[in-house]
């Protein structure tokens, strides 16, 4: 008979290890969801043991929290192989020391009210509603009584201060003027134990960062994104998250709609040429690419402008005159439309298609041709 030594030893070892695989109840002392580990303590010991919860737990179950009894699986022979496998049936107690972890104080939080809304009509002011909040386990009131300081003043002079009480205990605060176009800023309001609302003006940047809330203060509602160039805050700005500007929409503006024939082409057909032969009337068709904040977005955007209905033709630098012209535009570009003055009045319909990456933006524009005056 021949023995295969390695296989025999391995099989014998695996059987012995399996016989010592065991589960035991323990108490969760802390949870680290980032590293997917827990600090637990088993019966009769104050020594913390680090146990993992499996990667296939996509969301931590409700019972996986500090102070709960859980069951761990410990496999002998595999160093550090300790996993939480389910809820425990009993709460183990140590030989000495605390039987349960310190639950800690209640979180500092807004309990009621404390919401931020845009004013109506919109302005650089926001409305903060009255409410209650908790700091260091003490409940305080957020009211106009503490914050009504400057009645009847010009709002723009007192940025970041309550200047008027409105709708009972609700308060109006004014933000500083917006940064220049292309820059952004996060602003916030917070309150501490004194009940005074503090205005936190962020730093304007092309990549804004939220201001830090001071210690022993809580954030009121949420942050406000102040977009460069705006003159008023809307509800959309409250809680808005800044993202990298991308092409999000286009606009089509027809200048000279209802053509009065005041800008003729000469026979050479040069756009804008006011030669002696007033054979053609013209209009500008201005296409702009905008980002999600309403600012023009610079890039290279292949654009197609098509005349769908009516007389006349179009012009672009790349295509000259045709019923369909193309142009790669940077952010804003002016196409031309022309027609003979002697044609009957008619409606002209255009469509424009602008490509940005894999996105295509389309619009339709209409010119109602006016009479020759």
Helical/strand content category: mainly beta
Topology as H/E string?
A: HEEEEEEEEEEHEEEEEEEEEEEEEEE
What portion of residues is helical? under 10%
Radius of gyration computed on alpha carbons: 35 Å
Q: Sheet bearing the most strands, described?
A: 5 strands, antiparallel
What low-confidence regions span 5 or more consecutive residues with pLDDT below 50? Answer: 149-158, 162-167, 260-268
Question: What gap, in angstroms, lies between the N and C termini?
Answer: 117 Å
List how many beta strands DSSP finds: 25
What coarse outline follows from CA principal-axis ratios? Answer: elongated
- Largest beta sheet: what is the strand line-up? 3-2-1-4-5
Report the β-strand fraction as a percent range: 35-45%
Count of DSSP H/I helices: 2
Number of domains: 3
Mean pLDDT: 79
Indicate the topology.
Blueprint lengths: L4 H15 L2 E11 L4 E6 L6 E4 L16 E6 L7 E6 L21 E5 L2 E3 L6 E4 L2 E5 L2 E5 L1 H4 L14 E4 L5 E4 L9 E9 L4 E5 L15 E3 L4 E4 L19 E9 L24 E12 L9 E9 L3 E4 L3 E3 L1 E6 L2 E9 L6 E10 L2 E10 L5
Antiparallel strand pairs: 1-2, 1-4, 2-3, 4-5, 6-9, 7-8, 8-12, 9-10, 11-12, 13-14, 13-15, 13-16, 17-18, 18-23, 19-22, 19-24, 20-21, 20-23, 24-25
What does this structure look like?
It is a single chain. With 373 residues, the chain is mainly β. The chain has three domains: 5-87, Nucleic acid-binding proteins (OB fold (Dihydrolipoamide Acetyltransferase, E2P)), CATH 2.40.50.140; 109-237, no CATH class; 247-368, Immunoglobulin-like (Sandwich). Helices cover 5% and strands 42% of the residues. The strands form six sheets. A five-stranded antiparallel β-sheet has the order 3-2-1-4-5, with no helix packed on it. It has a five-stranded antiparallel β-sheet with strand order 17-18-23-20-21, with no helix packed on it.
